[in-house]
Amino acid sequence: MKQEDGSAEHASSPVLRLVQRYVDAATKHGRAVNVGDSKTANRQNARLTRASRALRESGGEGRIALLRLMEHPDPWVRLSAAYDCLAFDERRSIQVLEEIARMPGFVGFTAETVLRERTKRANHGSSGLR
Fold first, then answer.
1. Which domain CATH number covers 32?
2. What's the pLDDT at 121?
């Protein structure tokens, strides 16, 4: 059975459950940012961070799932995935961030900020964003 993210994994797969949590948190975070609800945005960002860490720590399968999420229809999910993939697919992550940076609103502004901070850190010798 094909899943929403295009994979053929069984619905009870641990990675699939993490992907579902990631998508849910990224979507709700973006919605909260758009309406100025900082309490909800912070809570969803914490959920997103936990799901992201768990996906990265789950090895190749988790990384593949994050890479696929850079093609998700929701720009907040793509933004989050691109940020999380910078360490292992910088070229594609930057492409996605640049695409989102051209979008109006907070999602575009956030992508611009990530790109700007990445450039600053690269110029100062820092190895990453997290």
1. 1.25.40.70
2. 83
